[in-house]
Structure formats: C-alpha cells, structure tokens
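Need a sequence for this fold. Nothing fancy.
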C-alpha cells in the first residue's frame, strides 16, 4: 500500500480553541485588572498629593501668621524702648521677652544706637534692606529675608554668625548665611519724622521648634509616627530647618534639594508639586518659594508626605481588588478548558482512528466519548464512511490485482514486440545491404552498359533500399533504447577522426544517389570526452535526413566547431524544410511531418528521437530550425569535457 501523502502540520484545533477561549477569558480580566490597578494607584496618589497641596497652604498661612503676630508684638512694645532711660537694656529685655535672635536700634541713616551690633560695626545698610527700607516710610514692616555672613556678624557679632552656620553630613559648610523672620518698627519724633528704627528678628536656621510646630499643625503630634509628614525651610537649595530624617536618622539639615525642584522653585519662582526624592526616600511633595518683601526668592517652604505608607495602602487595595478578578479569571479558564476538552477529545479519537485506517487496520474498535450533538453526528458519519471505504478498499485491491496482471501481460507483449522488432530489423539489415551492393555494381557498369530506362528503375530501387535501410537502423536503435542498451561510455576522442569522418563516409552513398553536394567544415582535430558510437548514430541520422528530405541536386553543409566549452554540430540543407511550429515535435517518437514533400518518402519517426536522447546522455541538447521552402537546419550541442551522463530512460 502506498504511504499517505505528507501532511503539513499547523496549529492544532485544540491549541487554537484553548488560546482563543483563554484569550476571551483572560484578556478582559487582565485589562480590567490593569485598569483597576492603575486607577487605584492614581487615585491614592492623587488624593495624597491633594492633601499635601492643602497642607502646604495651611503651613504657609500659619508661617505668615506667626511672623505677623511677632511683628505686632514688637510694634506694640517699641514705645517702651523709645521711653526707656537705657535703650540697651530695654532692647535686650525686649529681645528676650519676644524670643528674638537679634534686636537692634539704629537711626534713620543706619548708625547703630543700641543692641547687639558688633563692636566697630559700620552703618546698617538701610537702603539695601527691603524691610528697613519700608519701615523708613513710617510704618512697621516685616518679611522673610536672607542675611549673608557679613550682615549676621554686623548685627549680632560672631555668635550670631556661628549660630546660622549649616554643616552638611561630610562636615563641610553648606551655607554661612541665615534665613530669618525680619521686622522693623519706626520710632518717630515730633511731626511724625522717623528718627530711629527698632529692628531684628528670629533666625530660622536650626529652628526645629518652628518646623515641628508647623508639622504638628497639619500632621498631628508625635504619636502619628516619624513617617506622618515633614516640613522644611530652605535657604536657597539648602535645608536649614527640617524634620525630614537623614541617612543617619538625625535631621537632614545641610542636605540639598533635587535639581528639578531647584530649577522650578528657585530659578523660575514657581511652586512645585509631585513626587520628589527627599534625601534617600520618595515623598509626595509640595514646594513654595520664600521671597523677600521686594520679591527676590531666597528660599523655599516644603511640606511632604512619605510615599511608603501610601504605596502600602495602594498594594492593599490592589490585592483586595485583584483577588475577586483572579478568582473569576480562574473559573473562566477552568470552564474554557472543560469545553475545549469536550470538543477535542472526540476529534482526537476520530483522528487516531483515521491514522489506523491509513495503516490498513479496518477492524479496530471506535469508541467516541459523549460530546455535543454535532460531534456525535460527525462520529456517526465517520463510522459510515469508514465502512464504505473498507468496502471500496477491498474492491480496489481486487481491481489492482487485475490491473497488475493486465500490466504484466502488456509489458510482456511489449517485450515480445521489441524482441520481434529487433529480430526482424536485424534480419532485414543483411539482405538490404546485399541488394544495395548488387544495385551499385549494376549501376557502375560492371555487368555491362544498362539502357537509360533500366538505370532509372535501378536508381529508384536503390533509393527505396536506402530508405528501408535507414528505417532498419532506426528500429534497431529504438530497440536498444527500450532495452536500456544505449548508455554513454565516454572516453577521450577526436570528434573529427572518430565521429565526423566515419559518419560522412557511411552516408556518402545517400548524397551521391540524390546528387546533393555535401560540404564539411570541421577542424583537423577536436578533442572531446564522449561516446563516439552514440555520436556517430546521431550524426548519421542528421546526414541521412538531409539526404532524404533535401532538394535533389541541391547543397548540404555540415559544420563542427568548439564554442564556449561545447561541441557544436549543425547539418544545414536546401530543401522544403518544415513548418516552424513542428520544430519541437520532430524529436518526438514516431512523429513525422505530413505534407506534399514528405508523403512519398519513407521514415520511421524514430531517428530524431534517438538523436535527442543521445544529446541528453552527453549532457547536451538537440533542436531544429527551418525556413519553409528554402532550408532546414538540425543542431546538436554538448559539453566537451564537463558533462555528466543523464540517467537512462
């Protein structure tokens, strides 16, 4: 039994169904889960950020109110300094009473009058101090300002400058300036003219009490834990007062803000809200610039919530959300696999049964598991088909046996025919040769001079014998072909010596009997690797065709040469030629052109078929061309040395 044709395996129906059903079951769950997780995370982050933004507003308001209350207290108490007999004592007492870091008195031109001015200090730069400059207008002024190291030493001596220094974790000075609440109250004389300025303030560098109070205002007391939130005061980009813990657990005073925040708040004077890396942890943060009364940004006010608790809250919400989604997805997967199994199990059983049928097992049991109505119907149809195929297989086997016997009889008949053909043609060859020799003897006058009518009759007999001899040779070659005896035994040969000259001599009588002039163009030596016997058969066919179908008293030309590594043989003759559309069919077995020029000439239709087979045995080709009514040409080409012989037909 012939093997079944190969099957190209693609995705199985089970795989497709499982993937499709799982896709419909899982993709919505994954999409819903992803949307839910994203929504929950965004919602928690958004709510937390909104809280931070609100808390910053509260802290900023409280920051300003505290400064305003301090300024009001100083303004109320300023008259005591103006009335005091000892202004230095009154200033010192008021500074302690209000909890100020520095409190001084100077005249309208800035010359020190009382307070903690450094010995030998020059005039206070009233014109460059935005708070003092406003107070010269006759009303109290206050604001948050930055005092450089020189100004700090001028106002409070080395002690004040030292109190403002901020050192980073590596022991390097992060800043020597000070961030301060700065207040100035004018003291007026007769006519309301400002005679002196009572000014000073609270240094905010290293002021944990302030930032802790602001933090507790919005985030609760210490019982809320260290991660409840943080408030920070920045001088420039340096933390000068904060409750943000550093790497070592202490307050992160002296550390710097990140570059994106610095660029947004300090460089552009804008607020910043969002996630920010604070020291070594992520915070949901809000920053607002701190500006002096003249608008120059000198620092920042920060409120932040550690992100970690909100991340934990998000994870908890996500777990609560995803748990039912995952349960539904798993239930859908189980249901999908159950349905797919009910569909594919019967199909798998039917497929295995079909494979056993292909191997010839017609008697195996077919047990299809219960499934859906359509699949049970399919199983019933398959069982009927299997029985029908079994019966037809038995019938086909019987017919195959009959056909095999008939084919064997035909093959034997063909062998008998070819044997008979070979025997008959071989037996005809010798008497035909003898008849040609006797006719040639008579026509050459060896038996006396013949009258013209007798010569013409003998010439006709001679031509008939030549045609018969040509047919005999063709049938002998066909017999050898059919028996596989035409095999190329290649060897080193000379085409001119071993093929061309013997073939021309062997067929010369055909050209003489038709008075056709044959020209031969062939080099003296043309080496090749080929079978000389087969090539002589091919060239003999070309030559006898030219003599048989060429124009009597016409011309024929045989050219042999080497061209691009091939031997090229061409036999051209004058004559009626053949229609161009039959050029390819001339090389078919038993094909002959039937027209007015060929009906009187005998031919087997085998010669050119043999030529093409010989060309193929040499790895070459044969073809024909013609101009009807003028000429015909037959070509044979084959590689001189590199061709491999073609397999036998």
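Here you go.
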């Amino acid at each position: 039994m012939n093997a079944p044709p190969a099957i190209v395996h693609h995705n199985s129906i089970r795989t497709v169904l499982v993937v499709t059903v799982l896709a419909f079951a899982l993709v919505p769950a994954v999409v819903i889960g992803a949307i839910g997780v994203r929504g929950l995370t965004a919602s928690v982050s958004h709510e937390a950020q909104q809280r931070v933004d609100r808390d910053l507003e509260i802290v900023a308001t409280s920051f300003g109110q505290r400064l305003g209350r301090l300024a009001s207290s100083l303004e109320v108490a300023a008259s005591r300094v103006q009335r005091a007999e000892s202004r230095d004592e009154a200033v010192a007492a008021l500074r302690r009473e209000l909890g100020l870091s520095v409190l001084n008195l100077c005249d309208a031109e800035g010359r020190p009058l009382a307070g903690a001015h450094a010995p030998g200090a020059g005039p206070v730069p009233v014109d460059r101090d935005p708070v003092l400059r406003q107070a010269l207008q006759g009303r109290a002024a206050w604001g948050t300002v930055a005092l450089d190291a020189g100004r700090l030493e001028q106002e409070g001596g080395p002690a004040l400058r030292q109190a403002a220094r901020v050192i980073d974790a590596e022991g390097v000075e992060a800043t020597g300036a000070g961030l301060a609440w700065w207040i100035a109250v004018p003291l007026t004389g007769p006519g309301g003219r400002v005679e002196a300025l009572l000014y000073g303030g609270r240094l905010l560098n290293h002021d944990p009490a302030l930032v802790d109070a602001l933090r507790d205002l919005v985030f609760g007391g210490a019982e809320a834990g260290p991660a409840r939130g943080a408030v920070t005061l920045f001088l420039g980009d340096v933390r000068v007062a904060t409750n943000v813990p550093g790497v070592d657990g202490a307050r992160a005073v002296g550390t710097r803000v990140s570059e994106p925040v610095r660029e947004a708040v300090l460089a552009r004077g804008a607020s910043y809200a969002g996630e920010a890396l604070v020291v070594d942890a992520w915070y949901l943060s809000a920053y607002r610039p701190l500006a002096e009364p003249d608008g120059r940004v000198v620092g920042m006010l920060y409120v932040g919530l550690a992100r970690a608790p909100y991340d934990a809250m998000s994870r908890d919400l996500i777990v609560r959300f995803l748990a039912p989604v995952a349960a539904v997805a798993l239930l859908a997967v189980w249901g999908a696999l159950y349905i797919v199994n009910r569909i594919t199990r019967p199909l798998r059983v039917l497929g295995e049964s079909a494979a056993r049928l292909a191997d010839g097992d017609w008697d195996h049991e077919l047990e299809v598991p219960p499934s859906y109505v359509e699949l049970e119907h399919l199983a019933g149809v398959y069982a009927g088909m299997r029985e029908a195929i079994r019966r037809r297989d038995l019938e086909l086997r019987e017919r195959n046996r009959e056909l095999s016997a008939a084919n064997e009889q035909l093959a034997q008949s063909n062998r008998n025919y070819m044997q008979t053909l070979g025997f008959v043609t071989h037996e005809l060859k010798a008497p035909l040769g003898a008849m040609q020799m006797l006719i040639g003897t008579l026509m050459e006058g060896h038996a006396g001079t013949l009258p013209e009518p007798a010569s013409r009759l003998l010439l006709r007999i001679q031509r008939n014998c030549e045609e018969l001899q040509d047919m005999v040779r063709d049938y002998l070659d066909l017999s050898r072909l059919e028996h596989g005896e035409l095999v190329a035994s290649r060897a080193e040969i000379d085409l001119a010596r071993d093929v061309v000259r013997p073939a021309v001599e062997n067929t010369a009588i055909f050209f003489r009997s038709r008075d056709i002039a044959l020209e031969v163009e062939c080099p003296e030596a043309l080496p090749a690797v080929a079978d000389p016997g087969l090539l002589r058969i091919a060239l003999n066919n070309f030559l006898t065709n030219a003599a048989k179908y060429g124009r009597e008293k016409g011309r024929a030309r045989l050219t042999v040469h080497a061209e691009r590594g091939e031997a090229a043989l061409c036999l051209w003759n004058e004559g009626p030629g053949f229609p161009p559309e039959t050029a390819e069919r001339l090389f078919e077995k038993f094909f002959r052109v039937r027209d007015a020029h060929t009906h009187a000439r005998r031919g087997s239709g085998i010669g050119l078929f043999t030529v093409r087979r010989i060309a193929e045995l040499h790895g070459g080709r044969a073809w024909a061309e013609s101009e009807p009514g003028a000429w015909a040409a037959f070509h044979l080409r084959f590689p001189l040395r590199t061709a491999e012989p073609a397999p036998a037909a």
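For context: The longest strand covers residues 178-188.
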